[in-house]
Every structure is written in structure tokens, then in C-alpha cells.
Amino acid sequence: MTAAPADFARARSEFLSIDAPRVEDGAAIWRIARDSKVLDLNSSYSYLLWCRDFAATSAVARGENGEPIAFVTGYLRPDHPQTLVVWQVAVDQAHRGKGLAAALLDALTARVAADQGLSSVETTITPDNTASERLFTSYAQRHDVGLEREVLFEGDLFPEEAHLPEVLHRIGPFTT
Questions:
Q1: What's the predicted TM-score (pTM) here?
Q2: Is the peptide bond before 173 cis (omega within 30 degrees of 0)?
Q3: d(CA 81, CA 77)
Q4: What is the pLDDT of residues 71-102, one digit of tens each?
Q5: At 62, is the secondary structure helix, strand, or coil?
Q6: Nearest CA among 113, 110, 111, 105 for reference residue 87
Q7: d(C-alpha 50, C-alpha 154), whole Å
Q8: Are the C-beta atoms of residues 61 and 100 closer than 8 Å to each other?
Q9: Segment 7-30, tens digit of pLDDT
């Protein structure tokens, strides 16, 4: 299932802008991640650092009052500087189901491609996260690029009990 153009139009009507996060967005981004109930929640401090140190490879969608209503965080792989690793994507509950995550992902990858070039996108998804699976599958389809899946980290590598494996999704290559 892919996001239709009507979904993107509806998503765009729900927010005023997509831009890079600012440090003062860290608390709101942390709350959106916490309230998602599916993301691994990092410390609030880490979201502040993310907004400071990785703003160029992350994005927020802002609502009517300028507050973040959705975000995507990412970084460039040090050993593959044209590979964007998408760390987390979350949309505030009140704004879900409208294509906003797809619009954010498209805006972020377009910005990174324009600023520094982009050969591929990577993310990891646990096998039970169907929303993320749909998001990245539809992204690959919209951009007419390949999607490969392989287990990156087996579940037994994690110190928590009964952790599912993290499946690497590699999207691309993109042509420049």
C-alpha cells in the first residue's frame, strides 16, 4: 500500500512547514517518541543532542503554532557518507494516518540529496513494526529504487529479554 497524492495533500494541509529541528524542539520530539509507544525511547538529553548535532540530517513537521507534530531523525554513515541512516520516525497521534511520515521522509531525503548527495537510505525495523515496513516499502516504490532486507542484529545480541532482531532495509541506489 502506498501513499496516494491525496494523502500527501491532506498531510500538507495539517502542518505549516517541514524544516530542520532546533534544540528547543528536543522536548517535543522526546514526547512524540514516548507517546508513540512503539519506538525505543532514548533519554530526553539525547533528543536535545540530536537536534543540535544532527539537525542537517533530521526534519520536523510543524503545526499551526510552530510546535513539532512529527519528526524523522537520521545521520550519515561515517564509512558511507552518502548513505542516510534513518533512526526514528514518529507522528503525533492526532496527526497520524494522513501521509505525514511519508512527506517528512521525502522532504528529508530531498534536502540531504541536494546538500551532500545521497546514494542510499538505510533503516532498521523489527519484524513486528508493520507501519514502518509500509512506510519504507512505499518510499522505495515512489522513488522507483530497490529495497533489500537483511538481519543486521540478531535479537540475542541485545541485553533485554526477548528482543526481536533488527532488520536492515537498504533503499537505493539513487541516481544523481
A1: 0.88
A2: yes
A3: 5
A4: 999 999 999 999 999 999 999 999 998 899 99
A5: strand
A6: 105
A7: 26
A8: yes
A9: 544 445 556 799 999 999 999 999
Grid cell of 60 as nine digits = 520536523
Give residue for cell 533530521.
58
Three-class secondary structure of residue 68 per DSSP: strand
Pairing label, strands 80-91, 120-125: parallel
CA distance readout (Å), 119 to 24, 69, 152, 159, 173: 31, 28, 19, 33, 5
Axis-axis angle for helices 130-142, 100-116 (nearest 10): 50
Mean predicted lDDT score pLDDT of the chain = 90
Using DSSP, state whether 89 is helix, strand or coil: strand
What crossing angle do the helices spanning 44-53 and 26-36 adopt, rounded to 10°?
Answer: 130
d(C-alpha 120, C-alpha 52), whole Å:
24
Q: Are 21 and 29 in contact (CB under 8 A)?
A: yes
